[in-house]
Amino acid sequence: MPTLTSNVKFMNFYPFNDIETISPRPLLLIAGADAHSREFSEDAYNRAAEPKELVIIPNAGHVDLYDRVNLIPFAKLTSFFKSNLK
């Protein structure tokens, strides 16, 4: 159960503050060009250390990449995981 003090900590938590510390683990960010959340992916990309990739999907919103399989970049996902999961 959240408490009054834990709610304040949660509201002040920004998950990208220390994103560079996950380096050198590869980071792949995929966002729709029309997604309201695209700015978060771009912010994460700008803050992250290498190796990193940002893929912007044209004509896609935030939820389009959940189930519009014609927009999901399966080839990019496959190549990224094949080259980075060993």
Mean pLDDT across the residues is 90
What is the ordering of alpha helices and beta strands?
HEHEHH
Largest beta sheet: strand ordering = 1-2
Main beta sheet, described? 2 strands, parallel
Which descriptor suits the 3D outline?
A: globular
Rg is 16 Å
Give the % helix.
Answer: 25-40%
Count of helix runs: 4
How many domains make up the coordinates?
1
* Contiguous uncertain segments of 5+ residues: none
How far apart are the termini?
39 Å
Quick one: how many beta strands? 2
Structural class: alpha+beta
Task: Report the β-strand fraction as a percent range.
Answer: 5-15%
Explain the overall architecture:
This protein has 86 residues and is of the alpha+beta class. The chain has one domain (23-84). The chain is 40% helix and 14% strand. It is built from 4 helices and 2 strands; from the N terminus they run H-E-H-E-H-H. It has helices spanning 4-12, 38-47, 64-67, 74-84; strands at residues 27-32, 52-57. A two-stranded parallel ribbon has the order 1-2. The model has no long low-confidence stretch (mean pLDDT 90).
